[in-house]
Amino acid sequence: GAQKEAVAEKPLIGFITNGPYEFWTYSAAAVEILKKDLNIDVEFLLPPNGLPEEQKRFIESLVTRGVDGIGISVTDPDNVTPFLNEIMETVPMVMFDSDAPNSNRLAYVGMSNYAAGRMAGQAVKEVLPNGGEFMIIVGRLDAQNAIERRQGMIDELNGEPYVAQYPGKMTPNTPNLRLGGGKWTLLETRTDGGDQSKAKSNSEDAILKFPQMDLMVGMWSYSSPAIISAVADAGLLGKMKIIGFDMENELLQAVKDGHAYAALGQDPFTYAVRTIEILAKKARGEAVSIPADKLIDVPALKITAQNIDEVWGKYKAQLSDGNKYLEATK
Amino acid sequence: MVNELPEKYVLQVRNISKSFPGVRALNDVSFNLKVGETLALVGENGAGKSTMMKILAGVYVPDAGEIIIEGNAVSIGSVERATQFGVALVHQELNLCDNLSIAGNVFLGREPRRPHFKKIIDFDKMNKDAAEVLKKVGLNTNPSKILKELPISAQQLVEISKALSIHAKVVMFDEPTSSLSEHETEQLFNVIKDLNSHGISCIYISHRLGEVKDVADRVIVLRDGKLSGSLDKDEINRDRMIRLMVGRDIEKMYEKRHLVTDKVRLQLEDLIVPKQARFPVNLAVKGGEIVVLSGLIGAGRSELLHTIFGVDKSWGGKILLDGKEVTINKPIDAIRAGMVLVPEDRKLNGLVVNLEVDNNIALPGLCDNLSNRGFIDKKKVIELADTMVKKLDIRLFKTTQLAESLSGGNQQKVVLAKWLAMNPTLLLLDEPTRGIDVGAKAEIYKLLEDLAQLGVAILVASSELQEVLGIADRIVVMCEGRITGELDPASCSEEDIMKLATERLK
Amino acid sequence: MIKSNKMVEYVRSMKRIGGITFLLFLIILVTAIINPQFISSYNIRNILRWTGLFGLLSLGAAFVVITGGIDLSIGSVVGLIGSIAAYLMVHAQWPVWMVLIFIILLSATIGLIHGLLITKIHMQAFVVTLCGLFVYRGLARYLMDDRTQGYGTGFQNVRFLAGGRLPSAFWPAGQAPKFIQNWSIPMPFLLLIAIAVLMAIVLNKTIYGQHLKATGRNECASRFSGIHTDNVLIIAYVISSTLAGLGGLLFSLDLNTVQPSSMGNMYELYAIAGCVVGGVSLRGGDGSILGVILGTAIVRVLYNAINVAGVSTQLEQVVLGLVILIGVAADEVVRMIAAQRKVRESMILAQKALEKSKQTES
Amino acid sequence: MIKSNKMVEYVRSMKRIGGITFLLFLIILVTAIINPQFISSYNIRNILRWTGLFGLLSLGAAFVVITGGIDLSIGSVVGLIGSIAAYLMVHAQWPVWMVLIFIILLSATIGLIHGLLITKIHMQAFVVTLCGLFVYRGLARYLMDDRTQGYGTGFQNVRFLAGGRLPSAFWPAGQAPKFIQNWSIPMPFLLLIAIAVLMAIVLNKTIYGQHLKATGRNECASRFSGIHTDNVLIIAYVISSTLAGLGGLLFSLDLNTVQPSSMGNMYELYAIAGCVVGGVSLRGGDGSILGVILGTAIVRVLYNAINVAGVSTQLEQVVLGLVILIGVAADEVVRMIAAQRKVRESMILAQKALEKSKQTES
Ligand SMILES: Nc1ncnc2c1ncn2[C@@H]1O[C@H](COP(=O)(O)OP(=O)(O)OP(=O)(O)O)[C@@H](O)[C@H]1O
Ligand SMILES: Nc1ncnc2c1ncn2[C@@H]1O[C@H](COP(=O)(O)OP(=O)(O)OP(=O)(O)O)[C@@H](O)[C@H]1O
Ligand SMILES: [Mg+2]
Ligand SMILES: [Mg+2]
To answer: What is the pTM of this model?
Structure first.
């Protein structure tokens, strides 16, 4: 009884993220614009604890409501695929941010976290051209985006040939991983379970334990602000190199001030625009143009001191004045 | 009544009624209390005595009626206001905080304050004042000692000190002596007389009718929530009180019919009681014999019984039943061996107060004859409960009532019922008539008689000397965890018992 | 007399359950009006499945709560056992029956350890199971090396336990009549019902159940009554952990993905919330199995209703918290009012009796 | 006489604290041997700061635990107040003092609501604060629209509360003598000490403290003694929530960024763990402020030690759980053994006395 018979006047699209992170406020901004522009309803769902269980619950209630299409950032593609395929028998889906490549999805929008990780790896090469020691601070290591980002960095530093998609392996979290033939050392990957203050104390302890360390990498959005805070307390701002993921204000400010080397920014605003456009057209039975490989690339950005002003301005515009921004990019 | 001036009354109670869900606890009760007198309040279990006291102390609000203190109609309503009006109550059940010091308990809610910082407690003054009150009731311990370390009887003295320290105009005692022995009781009577001589009035509730005559100037009797009579000093006598309480005479409290067999049922050989009892105990109880353990507060009787019953594991020595050694690690072992214990503290150990009466009675026997392959036989449980309720004349509304809604004495009967239902061959009782009215007492003594006649061995710890002398075949006196002597009730006096009970080691 | 009494008691306990049932139907009604799809077979199926999964945890928690204790380790046990089960089947390739036996034994052992620490070393349940919460979570992460576990597309047989439905499963795939296909009951709910019936019998009809309730109300008196209170408590903790372990298995089979570091996080709170809403008193001694299931159902229905009614996910927790609060508070208030009314009635009776006796006197 | 007894009591309470202090120094010693950097001024500073921040939460929790209650909402209050504080200062641009007053009032109101529900509607603390845990978290997310809040580079004055140190702050930046710069004490720890002293006085010297302990142990007896137990309980919950709110402010100032959805998650468990390790009994009525601070310090030092000693990040929680467990269990076991030894000694003494008296008799 969950199927919709006729094409709806005002289609309902579900947009499910991988957690309640600020990152997704850019998508939320896009969603607000698209609702008006495309005359659709969008249910914007943020799993409170970022758990697969919550995503499953959301999908089920969307299906109950007769949803016309779902966009989702998949938390564990390998194992969730069968369930998603089942849903896709009646409801079309587009993956964004995190893909489920073996599912029957319409398309994948975004740049994989793996690719972003490879970009971060490049940044490490740039900031430590003669090699050095670094460590990673992250919330949970069994979260898909953490796995992919970390693996991307490792593979890049090891000089593996480039692939855009996560190849599905994971280097175990052992201390003192020698990368690039021993040029770089990943001292440790330390987790905090999503607790910001734990992230900060982990950073402090790392600074204490590894006085020779050159670089710290923050892998979740709150990780880099925690690192910056710890580095500032230790009086090492500008000395300790920092690379972070996502576009937290603290991190962007640090890049601007020269305290952090780079931020890897994805483009959640565009993720939402592309994902919802496809789903809305599909729901209205209109033609959609999707590349043969079903991959729609939305590149990530390496934000450094060179481009920070321009990029930050863009981000601010997305949030505050998204409409204009959208028109400008069209 | 008419020609007495109202000013002579410190307290007048007019037409008080009070109901609880399903019960009419008090029904139109009126009485007066003169300045400087001690009024005894007696009545059967559940007659409404405690309820009356709690109303005067501001714990309950009456449904109807009037309370007049020193000529002014007042509405009490809260404990604080009762204290302001000069009314203090020694509760029937202990109401103390065992994590505070003795002094802290005595002055709880009325702590002396520092002269300049009104929120700060003046501990020195509190300890000093407490020490004074404690001396009055004969508790010579350091008032800064934590209450937890005192035995229940000493805690009762603290509860009394608490009421005395209020410097009230009316001090009410709700069965203050139920866990006290003769020595402390006498001390308490001196305190009461001292209060009276200072113009302070007392209300005194007790089921030990013998005491009432010693302490009271006047007696009023409650029956089923109504006033059934009042006796002046010269009219006070046991039989009259009993008649007003129960509406009939009780012929004989004690009647020895049983014969002591020569089969030794329980034998303790060098039993070492853990915790404070410090000496190996040797004791034998024969079938059909009633042995009474006597002694002062904290003599270690309760602990001895607990050790025999396996509540505390003994640290050495042997327990022999019918000549065979038994190992008792847990109460269940004792129960299996045919032994039961009626504990002293019924609220804590005797009853699951918020469980129904029938389930309480059935609790120890569930594993044996009230179940079938692990499943409870509800019919048998109900039958058993009905039988026992009838047998012990437990006054209740229905057997599926929660035990806590019974009056103290009836709760005690439920404890007895639960254990007698086990048909024990050895019965251990710790203050079995604590808080029980005369009628019930007589019934319980009769029950013990019947059991003894059947050859059951009975070991009782009791602090009421009359009871000790009345029911015992043999009296064993303890002091500081040590048996100091044995006496024959036929040929000994109360003084003999007291002498052995105070034979302290230097 | 006995019969009528039984009736009265029955009605009284029903009244208590009645409140929750009313709340449940109120939520269902309101949501169904907002969105009729809420009572579609598809959605009801989902609700039943979730109720089944979380209900198992609540049932276990209920036994512990009835003893007056608490089990904060449930969520971590779910995570630990869930990941171990997947690991053993998929990576270690143990036969399914061996895995089942192993995880049951393992989770029972966890409960046994809790019970022993609580009874023999006299530690508080809160402390012991709080430590368990940390330890098992860490252990799950360590043993799995922080890797997500799952069954992929295999293990359809055992996954039937979580994803299957009856009676539609008796037909070859997809060939059951439409009606039966729509209204077949999910396995987790059937399992819940089976276990609940078993536990209701244990709680209400057996010696163990009576001992459990007595111990929960007054441990000391129970010990004096010859009850092995230690054993009673230990068994309760074993039951709780075992059901949590079973729940962990079912969750992992259902979700098909287990993140050792987060799966089951906070589930102990949901389990306890289910008990509390269902009328199990945290003071110990009181509780009914039916109540626990209804309580769990309320929490699950509420989650579903919030989503289906289109409330923002951010407000989800606010609504959940408020409904639990109001539900429990209403129960309390109703009971207070009822007690007051009863007192008033007996007061009136007493006054009447008084007047009567006065009349006869005069 | 009275004096010597005071001594005895003092020594006894010291013995209890002694156990934790010993545990604390053991952890410090072992870790310092593994990595001498552990006792560097930098690390000790960090430990003190964290102890200060978490200690505030534990102190508040302790008051509630002493009443025999529990406050599960602490973490959510930290998240709510932390994000509101940042939002008001940065986005709404309220003056700092107004924000301070507002958040203190807001968090006190939260505690007041808890207290009223618990005392007037007779709800259980566990239920009320569990609902609070859900509601405030959801509210924080809703009000902030899931956006991270932070102070950027501004607000150095108020951020001094969390990040400043004394006495080095009396010198112009960086000009304090090296020694003073190294060993200055972080503000959160100083705040903790100040509040702890205040609370120790309240608990041990004032009427309120006495009534708190009495109510925690035996509420009924306290009410019979004329104590307004309701007020006592309400104040305890107000204190707990207010300190949680203050903690939320300091955490947000220290981290400089607040994720409404996650900040403070599980902090209630850390707060209660700190109490429990510090010897506050969950049964109510017992507890010392010094113990709570030591207990919190143990948890923080342990976390730090695990990192510094190079234990794998996955085993962190295992170690934490086991140390808390062993710490509390050891305390229990030591007390059991001590009690037995004391009795044995008195047994021997008494037997000697008996023999003596027998000799004198004969
Ligand atoms: N809180 C209560 N709730 C319900 N019923 C009560 C309550 N307190 C007392 N009762 C009932 O009121 C009646 C009077 O009880 P009360 O305790 O005053 O008797 P009592 O005279 O003190 O008896 P005892 O000598 O056994 O202590 C009893 O029937 C008792 O069951
Ligand atoms: N005067 C006293 N003040 C405080 N404690 C005492 C006193 N005398 C003895 N004790 C303690 O009392 C304990 C024995 O209590 P127990 O309950 O076994 O005695 P009892 O003979 O049953 O007395 P009762 O039951 O009347 O209190 C011992 O621990 C002993 O140290
Ligand atoms: Mg009474
Ligand atoms: Mg005794």
So the answer is: 0.88
